[in-house]
Amino acid sequence: MSENKPTLVVLAAGMGSRYGGLKQMDGFGPNGETIIDYTLFDAIQVGFEKVVFVIRKSFADKFEPSFKEKLKGKVEVSFVYQELDKLPEGFEIPEGREKPWGTGHAVLVAKDEVDGPFAIVNADDFYGRNSLKLMLQELMRMDNQSIGGCMVGFVLEKTLSANGRVSRGICEIKDGVLLGITERTHIFPKNEGGAYFEEDGQQHDLTGQEVVSMNLMGFTAGTFSLMEQMFVDFMKAQGNELKSEFYIPSVLDTVRKAHSSVPVVMSADQWYGVTYAEDKSVVANKFKELVENGTYPANLWF
Question: How far apart are CA 277 and CA 163, in angstroms?
Fold first, then answer.
């Protein structure tokens, strides 16, 4: 791999418990294209040169051949597996643990396949081509040997589901630089506009104009050393818990606090994603519109 080859790390190992199935493999486009297909098409269009899929071994036989065929000759591809036993030396899976170790761990398992600046995306989120272009521009400005990160932000009201709660990292930003991220796990839209989140039995209002993270973050390869140490610290503190998770926003926040400022570029794109099965028709209709208006070809790959 050439130095500084920009890489897209696709987080596709999720269980889809609220959706009721493997949404990363479900069809949404007119020819059964997945959400990831559209993200990959955009990533190739704007200049990413490698894709690393983070998946689970349990669906590798179904997942890998499909994407190898689609992407052959278009971009370099590799696959890594997020499994519970991928732990630092000296740590073991606690008895009864079934839940994956979180998005930070998912990114960390891709370490050996990444030596250039890289962006991460969720497999079940549609970000829009301009969002990926903005991310790539930020990545190429960073010193890949140092610890560093960046983020594309979205407006909260453009990321909500009408079918239930969502989790979002609400960001504090000043002059285009991240000041902090607060994870809110129970955010709901209001019928009259705006939003609110629930915490400790209390309801807290939001305007809907807050900047949120959708895990469209970028890092230098040099940041993996920080991630490794943070995961060891996490395992020492919370490794015996059955549902604890090591989240990637905590890595970005540590970069911000201890190493370098984190630029945030705002996307005007409308986010689309599937948290619930009821979200599927909304997303499918959106892709139908994007095909009809010429943003995407009717068949992405062939």
Answer: 9
Close Cβ partners of 147 (under 8 Å, ≥ 6 residues apart): 220, 222, 223, 225, 226, 255, 259, 260
Structure tokens belonging to residue 120? 């991460």
- CA Rg, the chain, in Å? 18
Is the full-model pTM beyond 0.90? Answer: yes
CA dihedral 24, 28, 31, 34 (to 10 degrees): -20
Whole-number Å distance between alpha carbons of 255 and 24: 29
Residue-level pLDDT at 1: 38
Tens digits of residue pLDDT in 244-273: 999 999 999 999 998 889 999 999 888 888
Q: DSSP strand E in the chain: where?
A: 7-11, 50-55, 76-81, 118-122, 125-126, 149-155, 166-174, 177-189, 195-199, 202-206, 211-219, 264-266, 272-273
Task: Determine contact, residues 16/23, Cβ cutoff 8 Å.
Answer: yes
Whether the pLDDT of residue 90 is over 80: the answer is: yes
**Beta strand 76-81 with 118-122: parallel, antiparallel or unpaired?**
unpaired
Asked if the structure places residue 203 within a domain, the reply is no
Q: Report the alpha-carbon distance of residue 75 to residue 297 in Å, rounded.
A: 18
- Average pLDDT value for residue range 37-66: 94
Select the more confidently predicted residue: 273 or 285.
Answer: 285
Tokens of 156: 């909260």
Cβ–Cβ under 8 Å, residues 143 and 256? no
- The count of domains in the chain is 1
Answer whether residue 159 is part of any domain. Answer: no
Which residues share a beta bridge with 81? 55
Q: Is 90 exceeded by the pLDDT of residue 4? A: no
- Range(s) of the domain holding residue 91: 7-152+214-292
Report yes or no on 188 lying in a domain.
no
CB 216 within 8 A of CB 119: yes
Q: Classify residue 174: in a domain, yes or no.
A: no
